[in-house]
Design a protein that fits this description.
With 414 residues, the chain is α+β, with helices and mostly antiparallel strands. It folds into three domains: 93 residues, Double Stranded RNA Binding Domain; 91 residues, DNA polymerase, domain 1 (Orthogonal Bundle), CATH 1.10.150; 196 residues, Intergrase catalytic core (hpI Integrase, Chain A, Orthogonal Bundle), CATH 1.10.443.10. It contains 16 helices and seven strands. It has a four-stranded antiparallel beta sheet with strand order 1-2-3-4. It has a three-stranded antiparallel beta sheet with strand order 5-6-7. Strand 5 and strand 6 form a beta hairpin. Helix 14 packs across helix 16.
């Protein structure tokens, strides 16, 4: 088959803009790009078959790049040489794919349900529910009945536009669709990820880090918690707030702590993998102050399963909302401070006091990435225990208005 002298380049296509009327940019051999008034660029092949003019679309640029479009053009020319109308063949192929999709997981909803079951099987139930909720509310109603190969970037953009008032949600939905199409590509169901091109279509504001406290503010915080005793707040809520502070644990890890996880003899609290963010068990080395708080709490809830329970008869764990509300009403504590901010507070103070970075990262249950993550399996037990005891002593001193002495003189800085 005769070679075609193509002329278009990505630079020319990127420079193409919409005009008052649609227009064509020729590439060669009947292959051209139609530019709509909105600036959409669509690859097309115009040809003659059985004495009539025909035209078949080959996809939109840049989803279908220059090289891919020319490959399709060559295939269509081969069909034409064999006496087959490319447009008719494409329609028949599309119908066949739809029939096949209707009988298996080729439809987006069916495939995404399979993705949820297989790819998120080791995720937390809460995360699985969150992803399914996004699909049910925003994605399935729009493209659930479409075949995977029939979903286009503009379909993804339309879904994002419906929630553009909440940019974070729009990006989460796009990212979710992208993950599903990444899996579809690995499964050889499709060749292109329709969500990739929509990255940045809706600008997401920069994320704000959780506010942490200075040493002075930490002393104020600890005293404010103490003022909630004697009936102002439930004892479990007060104890949970103190344990979160003393252990640098996540709020959700602490409020659902079970007595079976606490070992008073060894002074440890072992958080199971299913309740940690990194899906790995986390051992917390309890300071003397933390042990004392838990021993007092045991007198209240030790007969049950949960460490920190509500005042109700059902003895269920206190809720995340209860903890957040508790923090907001603490006297003298910044109104934008949350339980999660205690992690940053502890990490900052420990580093300032001379504890090594890898010790602090282990206390926060952060996982190292790359080569270091593959080879570093140290636990640094004694240093972690020492760090949390030092931090508890620091909080105690700050609450009393005393002077705190760091460890830099002992050359512990990284």
């Amino acid at each position: 088959m005769r070679h075609t002298n193509y002329t278009l380049t990505p630079a020319k296509l990127n420079a193409a803009r919409g005009r008052d009327k649609p227009y064509k940019i020729a590439d060669g051999g009947g292959l051209f790009v139609r530019v709509s008034t909105a600036g959409t660029r669509t690859w097309c092949y115009g040809y003659a078959h059985a004495g009539k003019r025909g035209e078949v679309t080959l996809g939109q640029y840049p989803e279908v790049g220059v090289s891919a479009a020319r490959d399709q053009h060559f295939a269509a020319r081969q069909q034409l040489a064999a006496g087959v109308d490319p447009a008719v063949a494409k329609k028949a192929d599309r119908e066949e794919k739809k029939r096949a999709a209707a009988t298996d997981d080729g439809l987006f909803k069916a495939f995404s349900q399979k993705w949820l079951d297989e790819q998120l099987s080791d995720a937390t139930p809460a995360y699985q529910r969150k992803m399914r909720s996004l699909l049910e509310r925003f994605v399935w109603p729009s493209i659930g009945t479409k075949a995977l190969g029939d979903v286009k970037p503009h379909d993804v953009l339309a879904i994002m536009q419906k929630v553009r008032d909440t940019p974070g949600t729009a990006e989460k939905v796009r990212s979710l669709i992208k993950q599903i199409y990444d899996h579809a590509i690995r499964s050889l169901r499709v060749e292109h990820n329709v969500a990739s091109a929509m990255r940045g279509a809706i600008k997401v504001p920069s994320s704000k880090h959780h506010r942490h406290l200075s040493e002075l503010e930490l002393g104020v915080f600890w005293r404010a918690v103490g003022k909630q005793v004697d009936g102002v707040a439930h004892p479990s809520t007060i104890a949970a707030a103190r344990i979160i502070a003393l252990t640098l644990s996540r709020k959700t890890e602490a409020i659902k702590a079970e007595w079976s996880e606490i070992d008073f003899d060894k002074g440890t609290w072992t958080i199971p993998a299913e309740r940690t963010k990194m899906r790995k068990p986390q051992r917390v080395y309890l300071s003397r102050q933390a042990v004392a708080i838990l021993e007092a709490q045991q007198a209240l809830t030790g007969g049950g399963k949960w460490v920190f329970t509500t005042a109700s008869r059902r003895a269920v764990p206190i809720s995340a909302a209860t903890m957040t509300s508790f923090f907001k009403r603490l006297e003298g504590v910044p109104s934008d401070f949350t339980p999660h901010g205690l992690r940053g507070t502890g990490a900052t103070i420990l580093r300032e006091h001379g504890f090594r970075r890898d010790v602090v990262e282990l206390l926060l249950a952060h996982t190292e990435k790359g080569v270091a993550g593959a080879y570093h399996h140290h636990e640094l037990v004694e240093e972690r225990r020492e760090a949390l005891q030092h931090y508890a002593d620091t909080i105690e001193a700050l609450a009393k208005g005393g002077k705190v002495v760091g460890l830099k003189s002992r050359a512990r800085a990284a």
